[in-house]
Amino acid sequence: MYSKQCSDGAVGNHELYITDIAYETFNQFSKVYGDKYVTSNVQIINPATGQFEYVGKPYRYFTTQHGKSGSILLNFAVILILSKGLRIMAFGVLYDFKGNSNVSKVIKAADLVKEKAFLDAVNYPKPIDLFLLIGHNPARMNDSENTLGTVYKTIRGAHPDTPIQAFGGHSHIRYVFL
After folding, report:
1. How confident is the model at residue 136 (pLDDT cuts 50, 70, 90)?
2. Domains and CATH numbers, the chain
């Protein structure tokens, strides 16, 4: 059912503890969602190439369909967004997790915001009406594990007037900020 909806998903820490589960997420789960599975700071060694690759896509630029509702899959909680042809740049950011198996790596948010792929997405040549941050990451700025603030500040520096919405949670409490 989830695979048939207009969704964005992001990897969580539970998918990275055990190598077999990390590879299952990379080889199967992320393939079901395709471009809609956004993992901006999580990479895994592709066993076919021996090189690190993103588990999903590092970002997603999309336009919502005029007059229809879209949904965002965030750790299996569905949140509806009323869409009106919005041009959205989405990032999926896991907090700075350190307990992953050795076949995966989590890029710290402080390093992510300096990477070419991230900066290219923030400075995308097409118009952006909204930046969307999703992830297994506390959205409350005063949470000690929150890394969305680092991403938020970088985007805000380049786009002072563009809305930024974040949907996150790590302590199994969902939270949003605008």
Report:
1. confident
2. 2-177 (3.60.21.10)
